[in-house]
Amino acid sequence: MSISKPSTAKATGKKTPDEQAALRKQLIALLHGGQAHVTFDEVIKDFPANLRGTVAGNLPYSAWQILDHLRITQRDILNFSAPPTGGYHGMKWPDDYWPKSPQPPASNSWDQCIAAIRSDAEHFESLVENPKSDLYKPFRWGDGQNLLRETLLIADHNAYHLGELLVIRRLLGAWPK
């Protein structure tokens, strides 16, 4: 049995440079959006409460359903990337990822959903920013996914659905720009 020798930096107590720092910075900027499209805050700002559950035109979903889908999916990716105590428990696609009703269940549901999205985004970003997190190292669970892949997945998924929210606002005459 061979025991690997600790690196000189670890043995001397010196901090090793974060070789992934530049990539981490770019990933956080990507998660925040706004470079090639509107941001989360721009899309949800002053969204009329009376239109949140309206299904526009021939679309299959309301703004509420898109927003809650963003929350559910982002939470699932966060739970996959940093499983809570008890490990990661997969969800059933598509049933577990989409709210059934086009209407928010309560008058405060929209605001609670936004708060949860922001909280989970901060938690996920802290994973990405942590120099001890290896962006390339595959998770022990799953089938080869790593933090880099999950970060790109959140950014891509959120950008796609934020575009849908913007279109819904335009179709409902609720986009101020």
Give the SSE layout.
Elements: H1 8-12, H2 21-32, H3 40-44, H4 63-81, H5 109-129, H6 147-171
Helix pairs in contact: 2-5, 2-6, 4-5, 4-6
> Could you tell me the number of beta strands?
0
Write the H/E string, N to C: HHHHHH
- What's the pLDDT, averaged over the residues? 91
Separate helix tally: 6
How far from one another are the termini? 66 Å
Helix content: 40-55%
Largest sheet geometry:
none
Strand content: under 5%
Using the CA coordinates, give the radius of gyration.
20 Å
Query: What are the segments in which pLDDT stays under 50 over at least 5 consecutive residues?
Result: 1-12
Overview of the structural elements:
This protein has a domain at 69-177. It is globular. Helix 2 (21-32) runs antiparallel to helix 5 and helix 4 (63-81) runs parallel beside helix 5. It has six helices and no strands. With 177 residues, it is an all-alpha fold.
What are its keywords?
6 helices, mainly alpha, globular, 177 residues
Provide a brief overview of the structure.
The chain is 49% helix and 0% strand. By secondary structure, the protein is mainly α.
